[in-house]
Amino acid sequence: MSAFMKSKMRILERRIILFAVLVIASLITPVFAQSISPTLLTEENKQKIELAVWRYAIDTPLLLQTIDWFRDLTRNSQESAAIAELSRLEFMIAQLEKDKNQRVQRFERCIAIADQSLALNANDVRGLFWKAVAMGKMAEDSGMVNALRMLRPMEKMLLKVVALDEKYENAGAHRALGRMYHKLPGFPVSFGNNQKALTHLKQAHELFPRDIMTRAFYAEVLYDEGRQAEARRHADFVLATPIDEEDALEFAEYVDIALGVVKKTGGSNIKLGNY
């Protein structure tokens, strides 16, 4: 065999070996990758979580069972999103706690779990959001000094959620920022600002026009800004919207806000959806 042919054979041989290596790698790599980083947020698991969250106010045993199950599942997890979902579940049970001290402890637990998620991924939208709203709930139970100490970090986290995924939780970060800017006193006491509130609530409404919470908050700040006709339109929408039994406890606050706006704008013959 000529030197030329031998050279050709060696090149062909190397190509065959390389091809075999690539084929083997393509077969092995996905299996290996899956074995070291399986997601805990499978469709089945997400459905279980969503059901517990939806029914949290009327089926506390289901919520507690789901928390126990998912806590065990995430015990040694390095998946930030899954750990943040556990924080979300803890937030739900904290909302049901009537004792103030126990409620604060539960929200602290929610924040601690969210911190575990954020230690793995500082940009995890779920972790940022549930930590921020838990801090907001704690602020409601704290004195003015403690509340103001928590609100600036809360604002920073919510603005980060807006930047990363403004649609998360039905534009929940926009909604929370709008409510916070509306209810806080303005300068120099704090950083309340109705124009900022309107900006965030308007965006939340545009993204999710049928969201009852957003419509109630938007109605209230519009009324305070003298835009009564617009405020009344949003309040009427809230009161006309049928509310599922699962949502009745949570939505009672927003129905009350809407009722207040309707009464202040001369409302009569108020009709509620099926609340």
Describe the structure.
The chain has 275 residues and is an all-alpha fold. It has 2 domains: 42-156, Alpha Horseshoe (Serine Threonine Protein Phosphatase 5, Tetratricopeptide repeat), CATH 1.25.40.10; 166-275, Alpha Horseshoe (Serine Threonine Protein Phosphatase 5, Tetratricopeptide repeat), CATH 1.25.40.10. Helices cover 76% and strands 0% of the residues. It contains 12 helices and no strands. The chain has helices spanning 3-36, 43-54, 60-73, 80-96, 100-120, 125-141, 144-165, 168-183, 194-207, 212-224, 228-240, 248-264.
| Name of the top-level CATH class of the largest domain | Mainly Alpha
| Apparent shape | globular
Extract low-pLDDT stretches. 1-9, 15-37
**Helix fraction by DSSP (H/I, runs of at least 4):** over 70%
Strand content: under 5%
Named at the architecture level, the CATH assignment of the largest domain is Alpha Horseshoe
Number of strands: 0
Quickly count the helices. 12
Order of helices and strands: HHHHHHHHHHHH
Task: Tell me the CATH topology of the largest domain.
Answer: Serine Threonine Protein Phosphatase 5, Tetratricopeptide repeat
The biggest sheet, with number of strands, parallel, antiparallel or mixed sense and barrel status, is: none
The CATH superfamily of the largest domain turns out to be: Tetratricopeptide repeat domain
Number of domains: 2
Mean pLDDT: 86
Distance between the terminal alpha carbons, to the nearest Å? 92 Å
Structural class: mainly alpha
**How large, in whole angstroms, is the Cα Rg?**
26 Å
